[in-house]
């Protein structure tokens, strides 16, 4: 028998198929075929659209060439990419049916809604790209040299803070209506300009000595001429003073120093493989906040990637039963815990409540929602708890979600939680109504139950322990003067006037705590009784560690009121710092502010660079330099841009690649619906 007689007929005669294509490709096989096709499309397009090395420009030249091809695809994409059906314009709004090839069809409102939403995103992206192109043609700000306020060759510093070259139009005038001012901004008055230059020289002295004696270490011992590291930084050398001081350097125009610090961060700041126990709170406000601030100000994506790297190392601390993070995390193992002394292992209000500015902004600039989700979880846990007398205790158990020891304070353990409620609302361009309401409610209760007035007429925040007031106010609580005044300017009456006046009164009290000491610098805490007012009693309350909170309120109140007393008080602080804290190797804290010849503690804190000197510099600068209308300061004084108001926000928006992926998804969805 021939081979042709053995083979089935349809194998020998392909033109005669006894089995139809529909029978050959059953429904399950069609689904499998669809998934295979979709996988191939994603694999092909994904290599172009999503590999980060193709976007950063650090890969091989061939990969960069691929990305250039992708950019061309973006431009000509509409010519060959599957397009969505055109929008029904008037019919969508009028509820009418559409005419299509002579037939009347009911519109698919879900599809039309998706199309409209996508089209709006694409138009937003095109608008933002146009704005960015317009910003690119703007001349770069002329940067003062590290040695003086004088600009580049052939330029002279003008009284208004701009730098005048061949044209009569200053750089400040060019930038005023386009970009927020992040450098320059000198005051018109020569006396004020001279005071600002003094502060600038203080920063130079502090930074140069850190660079000389402790480069790469966390902090400086200015008398011993060596590095220093507090327990909050663990056992590693993470350059805390570098990261904390970078945005201050940039704002002051120290570009050589900024460049050196920036390069150190790029080359050395890496937590991978490091086994060290860090404070989640301090790492967030100093490192994540400082890096994000530098990203916003400069646009250098390296800072954003470093901030993301560090924040990701903190995420395991949130893996608790409630989502309330622990205070400490081992960045090598991912294990976390709370301080043993904190109310039976509770988390601290001012720590887990001081993450929102950095984490929300990080989600917006990276497109990764996990950080915002962590904050939302914290807020929901807090809102579910009944508050004793409407107050927020300083401790919350991360296992049970219940409040711990009944201790309420506007100072240590509580302070920045309230600050971040207000600033989260402001950062969102006042769209975060939840944060606003929580802030208003918290202030109503705190003002009603904690605000006291001394026999001498000084207004202060007392603390409460187990329903009993302790008439003590921390230096840390002095930030509240500026916070209340700032919040008041954005609230309606009667809260507006009430909060502004209260902020002024508290700031006056904090100034009195400085003025009543021998050094004219304030103690760590001060008390009120029939015998004393605004003075420390205990030896462990008399020290000053270069803290910024009082000066912070001077700065905010000056910006809001232009009352010259705040600049006068700030200058008093400058003179006191120069007299008692300046040493050949930098600046040191004091152990007793009431001593005529105080013992020095030999530590230059990183926040002295980040906060104290920055606030003093801005106090003697033009209001437009880091304007309060465009920026919010995190609790380490790192300015973060306000969404929808500040063009330096640099949030991620939908790209054309997202539009292509959406097309693929829609058509794959339609394929599945036909099976």
TrEMBL record:
It holds the Pfam family Glyco_hydro_47. Pathway: Protein modification; protein glycosylation. Its EC number is 3.2.1.-. Gene3D superfamilies: 1.50.10.10. Residues 145-159 have a biased composition (Polar residues). The chain crosses the membrane at residues 31-51. Its cofactor is Ca(2+). SUPFAM superfamilies: Seven-hairpin glycosidases. Keywords: Disulfide bond, Glycosidase, Hydrolase, Membrane, Transmembrane, Transmembrane helix. Residues 141-168 are annotated as: Disordered. Belongs to the glycosyl hydrolase 47 family. This is alpha-1,2-Mannosidase. It comes from Daphnia magna.
């Amino acid at each position: 028998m021939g081979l042709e007689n053995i083979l089935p007929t349809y194998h020998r005669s392909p033109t005669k198929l006894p089995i139809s294509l529909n029978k050959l490709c059953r429904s399950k096989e069609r689904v499998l075929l669809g998934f295979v096709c979709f996988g191939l499309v994603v694999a092909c397009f994904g290599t172009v659209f999503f590999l980060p090395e193709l976007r950063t420009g650090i890969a091989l030249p061939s990969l960069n060439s691929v990305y250039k091809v992708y950019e061309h695809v973006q431009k000509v994409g509409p010519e060959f990419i599957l397009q969505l059906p055109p929008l029904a314009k008037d019919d969508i709004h009028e509820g009418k049916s559409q005419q299509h090839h002579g037939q009347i069809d009911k519109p698919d409102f879900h599809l039309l809604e998706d199309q409209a939403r996508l089209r709006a995103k694409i138009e937003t992206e095109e608008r933002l790209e146009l704005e960015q192109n317009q910003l690119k043609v703007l001349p770069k700000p002329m940067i003062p040299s590290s040695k003086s306020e004088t600009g580049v060759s052939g330029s002279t510093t003008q009284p208004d803070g701009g730098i005048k070259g061949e044209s009569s139009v200053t750089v400040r005038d060019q930038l005023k209506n386009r970009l927020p001012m992040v450098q320059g901004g000198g005051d018109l008055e020569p006396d004020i300009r001279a005071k600002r230059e003094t502060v600038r020289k203080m920063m130079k002295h502090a930074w140069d000595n850190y660079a000389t004696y402790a480069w790469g270490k966390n902090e400086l011992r200015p008398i011993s001429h060596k590095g220093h590291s507090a327990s909050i930084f663990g056992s590693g050398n993470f350059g805390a003073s570098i990261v904390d001081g970078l945005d201050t350097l940039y704002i002051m125009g120290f570009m050589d120093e900024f460049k050196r610090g920036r390069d150190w961060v790029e080359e050395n700041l890496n937590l991978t493989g490091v086994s060290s126990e860090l404070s989640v709170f301090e790492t967030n406000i100093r490192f994540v906040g400082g890096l994000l601030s530098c990203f916003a100000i400069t646009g250098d994506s390296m800072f954003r990637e470093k901030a993301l790297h560090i924040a990701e190392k903190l995420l395991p601390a949130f893996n608790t039963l409630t989502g309330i993070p622990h205070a400490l995390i081992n960045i090598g193992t991912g294990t976390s815990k709370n301080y043993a002394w904190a109310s039976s292992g509770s988390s601290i209000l001012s720590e887990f409540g001081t993450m929102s500015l950095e984490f929300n902004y990080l989600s917006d600039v990276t497109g990764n929602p996990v950080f915002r989700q962590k904050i939302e979880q914290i807020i929901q846990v807090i809102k579910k708890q009944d508050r004793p007398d409407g107050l927020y205790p300083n401790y919350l158990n991360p296992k049970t979600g219940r409040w711990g020891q009944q201790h309420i304070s506007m100072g240590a353990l509580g302070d920045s939680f309230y600050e971040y409620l207000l600033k989260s609302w402001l950062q969102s361009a006042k769209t975060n109504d939840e944060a606003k309401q929580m802030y208003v409610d918290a202030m109503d209760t705190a003002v009603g139950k904690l605000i006291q007035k001394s026999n001498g007429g000084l207004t202060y925040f007392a603390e409460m322990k187990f329903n009993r007031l302790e008439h003590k106010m921390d230096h840390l609580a002095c930030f509240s003067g500026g916070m209340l005044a700032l919040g008041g300017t954005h609230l309606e009456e009667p809260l507006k006037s009430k909060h502004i006046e209260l902020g002024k009164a508290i700031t006056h009290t904090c100034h009195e705590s400085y003025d009543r000491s021998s050094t004219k610098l304030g103690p760590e805490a001060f008390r009120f009784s029939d015998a004393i007012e605004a003075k420390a009693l205990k030896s462990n309350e008399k020290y000053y560690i270069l803290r910024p909170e009082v000066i912070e309120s001077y700065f905010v109140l000056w910006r809001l009121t232009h009352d010259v007393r705040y600049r006068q008080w700030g200058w008093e602080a400058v003179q006191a710092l120069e007299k008692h804290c300046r040493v050949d190797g930098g600046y040191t804290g004091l152990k007793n502010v009431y001593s005529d010849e105080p013992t020095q503690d030999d530590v230059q804190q990183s926040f002295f660079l980040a906060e104290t000197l920055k606030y003093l510099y801005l106090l003697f600068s033009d209001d437009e330099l880091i304007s309060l209308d465009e920026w919010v300061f995190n609790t380490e004084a790192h300015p973060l841009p306000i969404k929808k108001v500040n063009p330096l926000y640099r949030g991620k928006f939908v790209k054309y690649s997202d539009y292509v992926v959406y097309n693929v998804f829609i058509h794959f969805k339609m394929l599945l619906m036909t099976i």
